[in-house]
Design a protein that fits this description.
The protein is of the alpha+beta class and 246 residues long. 21% of the residues lie in helices and 30% in strands. The longest helix has 15 residues, at 182-196. It starts with 18 loop residues before the first helix and ends in a 13-residue tail after the last strand.
């Protein structure tokens, strides 16, 4: 990882305008990996990747060299398409919502999840598909779960952490336990911990996930902006240009 000092942000800049580099050059710097102008989370922590506004061939080669894990990465807030050889896994119109009137409250039934719970967390994610979740995602912040008869049936936690803000993510409930308000309770409980630190809360979702968006709005979130998400897959090694720099 190359040490680099980020350029000063313009006066009008808001941390949520570009949350990935804001987090990785701020509170989440310990999870950052950089090649040239490309910045991303360590592969086992998260899939988020940040590219320059107008990436060139070298930037894409650096991105290919940086991405690990299963070779996929997620872009946030950009409509720049990757060059030939890359695969666009998904394109999603998203929404970014911020706390306007959340009645955040701690939940006595919610338990803090840690490294020992990761296998169950990964299993719940596989069954519910709330979004990318990797073996060390739990290290990004506080994750809370609700168990029934010892089984993890719902969870939510903290993901991106731009300065002054923390994102709530991985909100999911096992299908057989839906309709009991567990997800809403966990969102409010995670939010309570964030607000206890004096930080602001935001959440992101697919715009067409109308049930989730309605729930978040009912809880007290308001729409800040629409934001695109794109999943991309690194080309086959033989097709990656040999221009990647350290």
């Amino acid at each position: 990882m190359n040490a680099a000092v980020p350029a000063p942000a313009p006066a009008s800049y808001h941390p949520l305008d570009n949350p990935v580099p804001a987090a990785l050059t701020g509170p989440h710097a310990r999870f950052a990996e950089r090649r040239g102008r490309v910045l991303g989370y360590q592969a086992e922590v998260s899939t988020w990747l940040a590219l320059p506004e107008e990436p060139d061939a070298r930037d894409w080669a650096d991105a290919a060299a940086l991405v690990g894990g299963d070779g996929t990465a997620t872009l946030c807030g950009t409509d720049v398409l990757p060059p030939d050889g890359w695969e666009v896994v998904f394109e999603v119109d998203g929404v970014q919502l911020v706390d306007e009137s959340l009645a955040a409250v701690h939940d006595e039934e919610a338990v803090v999840l840690g490294a020992a719970d990761v296998p169950e967390m990964l299993d719940l994610v596989e069954r519910t598909r709330p979004g990318p979740f990797r073996p060390r995602t739990v290290e990004l912040g506080t994750y809370l779960g609700i168990r029934r008869d010892g089984e993890l049936v719902a969870m939510a936690g903290e993901r991106m952490h731009p300065p002054g803000w923390t994102e709530i993510s991985a909100v999911c409930t096992a299908p057989e336990f839906r309709g009991q308000g567990l997800g809403a309770r966990l969102v409010l409980a995670v939010a309570a911990g964030i607000k206890d630190r004096g930080e602001s809360v935001f959440i992101q979702a697919a715009a067409d996930n109308t049930n989730a968006v309605r729930l978040y709005e009912a809880l007290g979130f308001r729409l800040r902006r629409r934001i695109p998400f794109m999943g991309i897959r690194v080309p086959e090694p033989s097709r990656v240009p040999a221009t990647a720099g350290g």
